[in-house]
Structure formats: C-alpha cells, structure tokens
Design brief:
about 300 residues; TIM Barrel; two-stranded parallel sheet; 10 strands; globular; binds zinc ion
Length: about 300
C-alpha cells in the first residue's frame, strides 16, 4: 500500500473516531505493542540512515504520543508475563533498543528517565568487548559525509573527511557501549538482554545456541543479572532454533515482523514494530492504537545493523 494512501486511511480513522475506539477496545487491551529502535542520533545519523536511526526530537514526539494516548509502558519482562496471564493494562507498550549503541546511553536514556519509562537493550557482546566502533556502518557514514563535502575535491575532500572522522570517533558515533557502560545502565534499571555474541543467525541450530550461551554468560558477567530474553539478529529466526531456545530457558524472543503480540503469539516469535526517523508520526500512532494492523503491510522488516 502506498504510504500516502496509508496516511489518508489513518487520518480518516482518526477523524471518524475509529482510532480512539480501537485504542480503548478489549481487542487492543489484550495485545502488547513491542517497539524496536536501533540508533538515536548523536549528530546527523538519521539523515544518513533514516531506517536505522531516529533523531532525539522524533523520539521525544513518540514518547509524548504514548503519554497522550494513555499507554502503559511496561518493562518487557512484566509485559510478556501479563500478556500470557491476561492481565495487561490498557494500551500496553514495551520499548526495546537493539545492538547496544552508545547513543542509547547518551540520547535515549535521559529522555526515558525524565518520563520514568522502562526499556530493554538487546546487546551483542563481542562488539562491546573488542572494538566498540561498528566498522561497516562507520565506512558507510563516512562515504555519505564525503558526498556532502560540497565544493571540495580530491586531496582537500579527503583531508576534511579525515578531520571529521577523528571527530566522529571522539563523539562515539556509530559505536556500541563498553562492558563498563552496560554495567552502568543496568545498575540504573535498564534491562540488558541477549542479541547473540556475534550478531549471527547460522543455519546450524547448535552453533546458534553456542553463540546465545556465550552472549548470556558475557551479559551475566557484566551486569550480575541473568538475561532471559532474546532478540534475533537482523530479525532472522529458523525453525530449528525454537525448541533449543525453550530447552535452554530462553523465555521470549522478538523478531522484526510487524504486529501486536497477543496471547496466541509464540513466545519465541514475538512481533515488533521497528520505528525510525523514516516512519511518519501518523503511522507510529496507528500502530499504538492498533489501526495499522488492519491494513495490508509488509510481513518483514529486516534489522539493518
Ligand atoms: Zn541487531
């Protein structure tokens, strides 16, 4: 469905009162919206990759909308327990952030703390331990920056880019949190959960489980807390994973398949809505009310990191 037509449908449903009625319905009350974010811009990352990043200003608009629409933002652990117990509050929402970018601590956390909102961060531990800068993203960002160095050519452009890249590394752009930083946000109440050690989804389920266990132990070592929830890297999950995860006491796993979770959802295949700068505010609010689930949509949005 073309985006413009969708917004028209969302506008109409807002004006006719359908959005409000659906948001207040028993149908929505039995469902949980799990929101997925990746990076929150330290500078202009949302202009470079609006599918992966959101600006702090847009994130604030989203959090304000959750308050205005009377949502209850729950910690993920409590939210999924109450989903299956049938005791969810009205318009339940859980906030999740993938990959453990440093900008979560610098940009998102202050906004969440100011509103008293809980969040889960899914962490790939190999990056945190080894080299917090995500090299492939940094390369892509620098090439984009190079294209924006107007009027400069050849040697001059490269020099200016070199100065900028020093600044980027200093500002921790496109880098993930260190083990010490993860321990710090865990102590501040953020739930640190699993995203595999190496950000992989191998075909062999035993190899996948080895990676998940390494990830779990690394997180427990950093935070002193045993993680129980997983997010599939790049939203990829395979049938062979599910029984092994269940046998290894992984309680839930989230995908990037858009949808609201219900008690009928498999706990190891929970849908999420991936929000970013590229998402229109009307679309976001349509997911919060539940209206968006009644329109045709893409079945999968891959996680770009
Ligand atoms: Zn990821």
């Amino acid at each position: 469905m073309v985006a413009g037509l969708k917004w028209c449908a969302f506008e109409l449903s807002g004006r006719s009162g359908l959005t409000r009625r659906l948001a207040a319905s028993r149908w929505r009350q039995r469902r949980l919206l799990i929101l997925c974010y990746h990076g929150v811009s330290l500078a202009d990352e949302h202009e470079w990759n609006p599918e992966l990043y959101i600006s702090p200003r847009t994130l604030e608009k989203r959090l304000d909308a959750l308050a205005r629409m009377g949502c209850t933002v729950l910690p993920l652990d409590e939210a999924v327990r109450r989903l299956y117990d049938g005791t969810l509050p009205d318009r339940a929402v859980a906030l999740t952030f993938d990959d453990g970018f440093y900008d979560f601590k610098a940009r998102a956390l202050p906004l969440l703390q100011a509103r008293g909102l809980p969040a889960t961060v899914y962490v790939t531990t190999q990056r945190a331990h080894r080299n917090p800068t995500v090299a492939h993203l940094l390369t892509s960002y620098m090439l984009w920056k190079l294209g924006r160095v107007k009027g400069a050519v050849g040697h001059e452009a490269m020099e200016r880019l070199s100065v900028e890249s020093d600044g980027m590394l200093h500002a921790r752009l496109l880098s993930v949190m260190t083990p010490e930083e993860l321990a710090g946000i865990s102590a501040a109440g953020v739930a640190i959960e699993m995203h595999t050690h190496r950000h992989v989804a191998p075909i062999d389920p035993d190899e996948f489980m080895d990676d998940v266990r390494t990830n779990r132990e690394a997180i427990a070592g950093m935070t002193g807390r045993q993680p129980r929830h997983l997010c599939y890297p790049s939203g990829i999950y395979r049938p062979g994973y599910l029984s092994r995860l269940a046998a290894d006491a992984v309680e839930t796993a989230t995908t990037c398949d858009p949808g609201l979770a219900s008690a009928a959802s498999h706990p190891l295949m929970l849908p999420r809505f991936v929000d970013s700068e590229a998402c229109h505010q009307l679309t976001f609010e349509a997911w919060v009310s539940g209206v968006a689930t009644w329109l045709p949509r893409r079945t999968r949005t891959a996680n770009a990191a």
